C-alpha cells in the first residue's frame, strides 16, 4: 500500500524532475530516493517516471497519479491541523454559564472577545443562569464552566474557582427620592429604608456583599421585595417601591425613573468568579481557562 512518503516522493520529484534536488528537499540521499521510487513503482505495477542519464520525465501513469497524490497530501495536512487545533482546544464544544450582570460590567465582553480570536471554530454554548443553579450544573458536568458570584456555601469539592473581578457597591434609588440629587451618598443614610434585594440568602453571592456592607454601615434594612435579576430590581426601584444596593455596573443600565449613586462609606466589594470541575481536562476548557487568564488581569 502506498504511504504518504510515496505520495510526497512523487509530487516532489514531479516538481524538480531532478533526483539530486528532489532528494535534498526530502532530506534523503539520492540512492535512497532511487530505491524508494523503485519500491513505489513495484507497488503500483508500472513506471511512474521515465529517466535517462540526461533527464527525468513523468510517465503517463505518474501524470495520472499526480493530482490524486497532491490531494492526499493536502488532506493529510488538513487532518494534522485539525488534530493540532483540537489538542489546543480550538475545536469541539464549550458550554459556559454566566450571570446577567457580567454583561453590564464588561467582564463577559472581554472574555468572549479574546476567546473568539483564539478559538473561533469552537462551538461555544452560552447559558444565562442564576449562580445558585450554576454550581450544581458545573459539578454535574452539564456546564464546562460558570461565571458566578462568590461566596457560595458548600461549594462542591470537585470544583475549582478563580476570582476574576471585584465590583464596588452602589445605591439605586427613585428619581423622586429626596437624596436623588446628591452625587455621592452614605449607606448609613438609608437606615430603616425599604429595600429591594436579590432572592439569595445573606451568605450567598451579591446578597452576602450587601449584608456585609449594611452591617459595616450599622443599618437595618426592611426588605420589601426580592428578585433574581438586577434588571427587575431596578425596575421595582423605578416604580418607587424602595431602594436597592446594586453592583456599580448597574449605573450603565438606563431605566427612566432611577439614579445610581456611589457609596462613600462602603469598601465592601462583590466578587465575580469562574468555576469549573477540577478533573475536566478537555482541550476546549483548558484553552478557555488560558484565554481568561490572558484577557483579564490577575486579581
From TrEMBL:
Annotated SUPFAM superfamilies: Periplasmic binding protein-like II, Winged helix' DNA-binding domain
GO cellular component assignments: protein-DNA complex
Annotated coiled-coil segments of the chain: none
InterPro entries noted in UniProt: LysR_HTH_N, LysR_subst-bd, WH-like_DNA-bd_sf, WH_DNA-bd_sf
Domain of life: Bacteria
Keywords: DNA-binding, Transcription, Transcription regulation
Phosphoprotein listed as a keyword: no
Gene3D superfamilies listed in its UniProt record: Periplasmic binding protein-like II, Winged helix-like DNA-binding domain superfamily/Winged helix DNA-binding domain
Ranges where the HTH lysR-type domain occurs: 2-59
Family to which the UniProt record says this protein belongs: Belongs to the LysR transcriptional regulatory family.
Protein name, as recorded: LysR family transcriptional regulator
Amino acid at each position: 500500500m502506498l504511504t504518504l512518503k510515496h505520495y510526497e516522493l512523487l509530487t516532489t520529484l514531479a516538481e524538480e524532475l531532478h533526483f539530486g534536488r528532489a532528494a535534498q528537499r526530502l532530506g534523503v540521499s539520492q540512492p535512497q530516493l532511487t530505491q524508494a521510487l523503485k519500491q513505489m513503482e513495484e507497488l503500483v505495477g508500472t513506471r511512474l517516471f521515465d529517466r535517462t542519464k540526461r533527464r527525468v520525465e513523468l510517465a503517463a501513469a505518474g501524470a495520472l497519479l499526480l493530482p490524486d497524490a497532491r490531494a492526499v497530501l493536502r488532506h493529510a495536512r488538513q487532518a494534522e491541523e485539525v488534530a493540532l487545533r483540537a489538542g489546543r482546544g480550538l475545536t469541539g464544544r464549550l458550554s459556559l454559564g454566566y450571570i446577567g450582570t457580567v454583561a453590564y460590567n464588561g467582564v463577559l465582553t472581554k472574555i468572549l472577545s479574546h476567546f473568539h480570536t483564539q478559538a473561533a471554530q469552537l462551538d461555544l454554548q452560552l447559558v444565562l443562569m442564576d449562580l445558585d443553579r450554576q454550581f450544581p450544573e458545573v459539578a454535574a458536568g452539564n456546564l464546562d464552566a460558570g461565571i458566578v458570584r462568590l461566596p457560595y456555601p458548600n461549594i462542591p469539592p470537585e470544583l475549582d474557582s478563580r476570582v476574576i473581578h471585584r465590583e464596588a457597591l452602589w445605591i439605586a434609588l427613585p428619581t423622586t427620592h429626596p437624596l436623588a440629587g446628591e452625587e455621592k451618598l452614605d449607606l448609613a443614610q438609608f437606615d430603616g429604608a425599604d429595600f429591594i434585594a436579590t432572592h439569595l440568602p445573606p451568605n450567598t453571592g451579591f446578597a452576602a456583599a450587601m449584608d456585609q456592607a449594611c452591617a459595616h454601615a450599622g443599618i437595618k434594612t426592611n426588605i420589601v421585595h426580592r428578585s433574581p435579576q438586577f434588571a427587575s430590581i431596578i425596575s421595582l426601584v423605578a416604580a418607587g417601591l424602595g431602594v436597592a444596593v446594586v453592583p456599580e455596573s448597574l449605573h450603565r443600565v438606563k431605566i427612566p425613573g432611577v439614579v445610581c449613586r456611589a457609596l462613600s462609606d462602603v469598601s465592601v466589594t462583590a466578587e465575580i468568579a469562574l468555576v469549573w470541575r477540577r478533573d475536566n481536562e478537555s482541550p476546549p476548557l483548558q484553552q478557555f481557562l488560558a484565554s481568561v487568564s490572558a484577557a483579564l488581569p490577575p486579581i
